[in-house]
Write a structure and sequence with these properties.
The protein contains four helices and no strands. By secondary structure, it is mainly alpha-helical.
């Protein structure tokens, strides 16, 4: 699985727990209210654990976390 697919799987199964299985990598997770600040913190911890990438506090912004695709693109930098 590529990084985007892993992140999408995590969001669907861990953060949303099946509430919105039809989401795509481009869907606005924050704008649609699918995840909140706690969800973002959980994603940051998952990224550290799964990919061994530490996300600095200053990079935890809407533009980087609004969708799985945006997050995957940010992590690829």
């Amino acid at each position: 699985m590529d990084r985007e697919a892993i992140l999408l799987d995590y969001v669907k199964n861990e953060l949303l727990r099946g509430r919105a299985n039809n989401i795509t990598a481009e869907d606005d997770l924050l704008g649609a209210g699918l995840i909140d600040s706690l969800g973002i913190l959980q994603m940051v911890a998952f990224i550290d654990e799964r990919f061994n990438i530490q996300v600095p506090d200053e990079d935890v912004v809407y533009e980087n976390f609004n969708s799985v695709k945006a997050l995957s693109d940010y992590l690829a930098q």
